[in-house]
Design brief:
- The protein has 418 residues and is an alpha/beta fold.
- It has 2 domains: 138 residues, Spore Coat Polysaccharide Biosynthesis Protein SpsA, Chain A (Alpha-Beta Complex), CATH 3.90.550; 253 residues, UDP N-Acetylglucosamine Acyltransferase, domain 1 (3 Solenoid).
- The chain contains 7 helices and 34 strands.
- A 9-stranded mixed sheet has the order 6-7-10-13-16-19-22-27-30.
- Strand 1, helix 1 and strand 2 form a beta-alpha-beta unit.
Length: 418
Amino acid sequence: MNIAIFEDPAVEKLAPITTSKPAYAISCGSYRLIDFVQLLGGNKIATVRNHLKGIQNRDFDCASTLDLSYPKTIVVNARVAPTVDNYQALQQLGAGPPCVLRADDDSICAAVLPTDTLPADAFATGDWINAVSEIIDAANLPPAPIALPTFQYPHDVIRLHMQHCEQNLEFRLLQDQLQRLTEGVFVAQRSPPTIHPSAVFDASDGPIIFDSNVQVGPHCFFRGPVYVGPNGKISEHSSIKDAVCIAHTCKIGGEVEGCVVEPWTNKQHHGFLGHSYLGSWINLGAGTCNSDLKNTYGKINMTYGNQTVATDMQFVGCIIGDYAKTSINTSIFTGKTIGVASMVYGMATANVPSFVNSARTLGQLGLLPPEIAITTQKRMFARRKVAHQATDSQLINDMFTLTEHERPAGLSKQPIAF
């Protein structure tokens, strides 16, 4: 069958997570939606916002046209959470008759359509979602008796990660080539990890998985569910616990609890990180800590732009966009977001816009120009032996333009002085 993933307008509410990546590439419980779609097989199609097309063409193997030999096409919203339950629901949809599944706001979560009702190039146009919506409306499809939880706001990534992490990792045990190291602890068979014998494990609440080439330093503690992706490095004396999933090629140290960490991100030194989402190519300076609990122990409200959203969650840390940095001993208050390519010094007592140098507690907020962000990007890539391409620079420039509304007018380009 054809499986077509699409981004709808609500994807903008997931910023800063989706400022730099397709919504289908958000990690949750060690999986991305694109990973589960790959497991479904068939012809995979994806449409993304214009500024992400170069990234998609380079990093994701997606077709641009329908395979007319498949009688069915499943349309899937990119905001559908990558959980085992949703994966199994999509399998069930694919095996059933044409139908449509809508969210409470009437947006399409998923639909099953006869392929012959769609033009072969239906997903090659920028306005395809309206065209397909019209086809769905005209077909008068019955509603699907299935629920597919989606990401509505950034904190939903943390919420759904906490809820589904254990189940996702149990599923991973069935999919990957892993061998048992000790009770509840599993390691990759190919290029197995190097784990110091002083490491301590507690898998009573979920499995602990170390993928290929992981390095674990002395005197580390792990309490599952935990996943450490390929080429990850866990610094000595670290505590990684209670639903932590770390993607490939990350360096992690200190105390980390209930977090999602995307590829190429470093939190190498001491400091607490709790119930948070970290994008890619982030570096947290030594001693950086965040709060994930209010002093009143009450439920946390998040501020997104001019909107205040009740999370109904007691623990929410921070949401940090790709390419952001913090200085040594940075403190991030409960439920704050840090935009893409920003640099934070001191305390983050409020949300930090994208592309700024933020030292609010010192009375300074300045612009971080895209050329500086690109120079930093190139240096980071070189350290990791990753080839820098024109697509990467294009992404920085496009994100700078797209996030202009976040920043106060008239910010100085002069470096922050201490």
